[in-house]
Amino acid sequence: PKPLVGVSACIIGQPVRFDGGHKRSHFVDDQLSQWVQLKPLCPEVGAGMTVPRPTVRLRKIGESVRIMDDKNNVDYSDAMHAFNERALPGLASLSGYVVCAKSPSCGMERVKVVQEDGKGAERNGRGLFTDALMKRYPLLPVEEDGRLNDPHLRENFVVRVLIYQELQQLM
Ligand code: SF4
What we know:
By secondary structure, the protein is of the alpha/beta class. The chain has one domain (4-170). The protein contains five helices and nine strands. The protein has helices spanning 26-35, 43-46, 77-87, 128-136, 151-170; strands spanning 4-8, 37-41, 57-61, 64-69, 74-75, 96-99, 111-114, 121-125, 142-144. The chain has a five-stranded mixed sheet. Strands 2-1-6-9 form a four-stranded parallel sheet. The chain is globular and about 50 Å long. The mean pLDDT is 97. Iron/sulfur cluster (SF4) is lined by residues 8-10, 16-17, 42-44, 100, 103, 105-106.
């Protein structure tokens, strides 16, 4: 069977972004989709946010990193953690995941984190959904959409997905 690969819904063209748009990836939607079965998910919609919605970003508060709509001072962290608790157990059959870069929910690396005083920001965060996904399934191959524009990373990802699927079948 084709490996089942999770994907941020907006990168296969679903209009779920904050502005009602998408971030369709030609590679994922047109090419990768021929070799794997894609399972789309939008964690922000899953956590109860509307389309369209105010933008959210990561913000450091004390020792924790929160996901917040700073303009309206709404904290979605609890809703996002609750969504992760609900959704992650059902993703055990995935053999890989392609996430949308830079997103405070889906980004894998270098996501902007606003500092507690609201003045500075560092690019050292990970989206709260992807963070929980990678902690729960530490061996799962995960990549960002933009990185898959690199042919070497593309090939590497597909090979890792196939190996992971083999391992799943042995277990
Ligand atoms: Fe795309 Fe993820 Fe943002 Fe949803 S939460 S719009 S899937 S980047």
